[in-house]
Amino acid sequence: MEKGSKKLAFKEKEDLKTASAINNRGILSKVYGNLNKDNDKPIIPLGHGDPSVFPCFYTTPLAVEAIVDSVRSSQFNCYASSFGIPPARRAVAEYLSLDLSYKLSPDDVYLTAGCAQAIEVIISVLASPEANILLPRPGFPMYESRAAFSHLEARHFDLLPKKGWEIDLDSVEALVDENTVAMVIINPGNPCGNVYTFQHLKKVAETAKKLGIFVIADEVYGHFAFGANSFVPMGELAYIVPVLTLGSISKTWIVPGWRLGWIVLNDPNDILKKAGIVDSIKNYLNIIAHPATFVQGAIPQILEKTEESFFSNVLNIAKKAADICYDKISKIPCITCPHKPEGGMFVMVGLSLSLLDGITDDFDFCLKLAREDSVIVLPGVAVGYKNWLRIAFAVEPSILEEGLERLKKFCQRHALKQEDIHSIVTKNS
Ligand SMILES: *Cc1c(COP(=O)(O)O)cnc(C)c1O
After folding, report:
1. In terms of residue numbers, what domain contains 262?
2. One domain, residues 179 and 277
3. Contact 218 CB / ligand 1 (< 6 Å)
4. pLDDT tens readout for residues 52-69
5. For residue 134, is pLDDT > 70?
């Protein structure tokens, strides 16, 4: 260092390092980092849920026109107000009210830069030294990361693979104490592909009410349901317990790059308002950046004009992909799928390490799969579920088939030989 120059006062934040390390993006980048550049097989990305790159999942031209019209109008070059421009808030309120037995007001809607920023806002607002929040396991790691960074204690309740990944409500009750503020549910589910019935959601609401906590419903995959259960918004149970609904256009319209999401208050009895949570959300929104105003300007057209056929087409492809995934996986001995996905873009599959030779855990499995076969899959540890895998099936069906074929060959190459299994069995008997 030069004489007389002062040292940088920067100090690296440990909690930020932790928050990043437990994020799926951090773990996925390590899996990508293990690709073999000399391997000429094209990379098959089954690691994250962004189907926007595949032509069969392109968004509707009507949404694109809405954006173009918004930019052309020159009316949205301005800053937006902190909670979102009124026509966009009204459009979201009307869109979500279509599924509710009561009507949301535009004042119940706060626009955010995607659902990810909605998560940031909520976790930041709820964090206090004593408080804790209940999160699903397996779950969506952004909740854990934001909680770690904000020093909000996260406690985990279980989802039950043999019961369609329903919430284990006994495990919820066992976790709660007087400092628990809320529980998070993700429906339709990431990473499990679950779609909850009205009856299950009602039990969730009744449990939360009994425990004196409210529900944060991550419905970023709202309407992305293609199985027997149709999507029911948690807000429909808001007469039992207050609900904050988080959502965005990212997944349903397949435009995650447009960064437009929302926090919606489903609180007919004003419980969250009286507790000061609504004012805290408003105060937080006053000190952060907003989604781009021209995207907000396009929202009324996007939400009101999108044709039903766009959604039904996307859901048909997703259903086909989920079917391919389930069938192919059922033919791979070392991997099992406890529940066929009914919604969302992911399936969770269990890994039988005892049938594999030289694979230490799920992370090791994914690193080797990337290196040998150029297939990217997320290790379950990234979603709180060690020795499972999360597979994104919302990709072009032909690419998915190729990816699963390589996965099968990989498992065959690494399978324990019959005689090895025999000797293990006889040794243990
Ligand atoms: C993708 C996703 C988000 C983030 O949504 P964006 O609108 O892209 O920010 C939040 N929650 C879950 C469960 C997701 O899968």
Report:
1. 61-305
2. yes
3. yes
4. 999 999 999 999 999 999
5. yes
